[in-house]
Specification:
3 helices; mainly alpha; EN/SPM-LIKE TRANSPOSON-RELATED; 91 residues
């Protein structure tokens, strides 16, 4: 079977004139752009997830520090409060 190059080139020329190839190129371009946009959004989501992990980690550390300070304050206040039993003996 032989392919007539003249017929093939006429077929291609007709499709170009009908806008088939530019339409296909447009579809490919739009698909690539959507893929790129999806990749960018994925990177942004990952960045935000990393920030959330970082902030949660710092929140837990701050919670621990607050508890430690509350314990220290409680010990300080209990040691500086006057003992009412001892005060009654001196009166």
């Amino acid at each position: 079977m032989q392919v007539d190059l003249k017929e093939t080139s006429m077929f291609v020329r007709d499709e170009i004139q009908n806008g088939v190839f530019p339409q296909a190129q447009s579809i490919i371009y739009n698909a690539k752009k959507l893929q790129d946009d999806l990749h960018v959004f994925g990177m942004k989501i990952k960045h935000h997830e990393d920030n959330i992990k970082f902030l949660k980690s710092h929140k837990y550390k701050l919670d621990d520090s607050i508890l430690d300070l509350q314990v220290i304050l409680g010990k300080y206040h209990s040691s500086t409060l006057p003992n009412t039993e001892n005060d009654a003996l001196f009166l």
